[in-house]
Amino acid sequence: MVVFVLTISMAGCSGNAGVEYVEKDGRWFYSCDLDKANAPTSNLKLSSIAEKPKVVFFDTSPESIFGFWRCTISDNYIGICPSSGRFKLFDHDGRFLRGIGDVGHGPGEYTKIYEACIDEKNGYVYLGDMGTRKILKYTIDGEFLCVVNVGRPISKCALRCREDGALEVVNMPFGMGDYQFMVAGGMSAPTYYPAKMEVPTRDENGNFIGFNNEIWTYGNSGLMTYKLSCSDTLYAFDSSDGSNYPLVTAQCENKVYFMFNETSKYLFIDTLVDPKVIWRIDRSNGKLAKGEIENDYLYGMSVNNPIIKFRNGWYYDFYDSYDLESELETLEKEGNLGKEELSEVRQLKEKVQASEQGVMLLGKLK
User: Mind listing the pLDDT tens digit for each residue in 126-154?
Assistant: First the structure.
């Protein structure tokens, strides 16, 4: 196999040592050696990535209470995968609409929701159950329809619904007999794609290889993009031709674990050294930089752990009420706000103090 490498200057960017633009099997991706990178430090404004976030206060009725773990977002819905319990569906005003399915071992029930996907256009919700290794399909009104046949048992999965209603699945291998695969199609006759870049989870003695038991999916730029925790690469799966290929890969000395994300404008790399600082590649010119992401909609408040805050084409930031209250108090004490800005922060803090459940900032990506 022939691999072509271009220095980043040939992609329209000079002075970014440590970054190469690499061709493999007709696809191009960024290869980053962060130890050699001379990237400038500059903060990125949230307004350059997302529209102004809405502050979502969630219902506090007994049936709406959840322990936040993951979420999935569509144009009008927020689906909460709790740390345990029932999948809960809210609107963008935080109103509780309904639970989907229930915990158990009967029809339409699950033991632990690992991943979820809302197909708002066609009116479906898909839940990936880690405990029973199956994908469950419901109407958006909560009616259980079927167990989706993907041709192989799933362990931990990433899910994405295409515009045409087809479901895309990437499997994260976990059990001894599992391996990574991709599948897509209408699911009555799914198309199955073995992974070209298999990532084992256990050695020949059955022992786990490092911290390699999670998968993260993003899908902010029109493709199924995902990261396996044991790899140093952000992958994309294109179901139009079944290809599985890298978008960006990274390395640095004494570092074996990275996190990634992507939007239409940037590729993000996090070495997990600082909860606020991440690396970014500008996709328009290939330039590398690092810094914080400032929520300039909230007067420069830093976005904590920004690498996980972009998903399904949205920026979201979920806070325990007390945590957001503390962030707003810090803004007050710093003394950098004008009179009108200070009044707005205090009004928001009062609303947060009155909230008995979590608060989410939610803004559509540009």
Answer: 999 988 889 999 999 999 999 998 878 88
Identify whether the C-beta of residue 98 lies closer than 8 Å to the C-beta of residue 82: no
Cα separation, 181 vs 169, in Å, equals 8
- In eight-state DSSP terms, residue 40 is P
Beta bridge partners of 294: 45, 302
Residue 140's contacts (CB-CB under 8 Å, 6 or more residues apart) are 77, 89, 118, 120, 123, 124, 125
Q: Which positions ≥6 away from 255 have C-beta within 8 Å? A: 34, 271
Q: Are 142 and 161 in contact (CB under 8 A)?
A: no
Rounded distance between C-alpha atoms, residue 260 and residue 202, angstroms: 23
Q: For 36-74, how does the pLDDT look when each residue is reduced to its tens digit (9 = 90+)?
A: 888 899 999 999 999 999 999 999 999 999 999 999 999
- SS3 readout for 217-276: ECCCCCCEEEEECCCCEEEEEECCCCEEEEEEEEEECCECCCEEEECCCEEEEECCCCCC
Q: Both tokens of residue 173?
A: 């291998």
Amino acid 293 reads I
Per DSSP, the three-state class of 288 is strand
**Pair of tokens at residue 44:** 């990125």
**How many residues does the structure list for the chain?**
366
Residue 114, amino acid: Y
Q: Residue 9 to residues 6, 36, 82, 262: CA-CA distances in angstroms? A: 8, 15, 46, 22
**Phi and psi (nearest 5°) for 22?**
-115, 140
pTM for the full model? 0.89
Instruction: State the Cα–Cα distance between residues 92 and 121, nearest whole angstrom.
Output: 16
pLDDT band at 238 (very low <50, low <70, confident <90, very high): confident
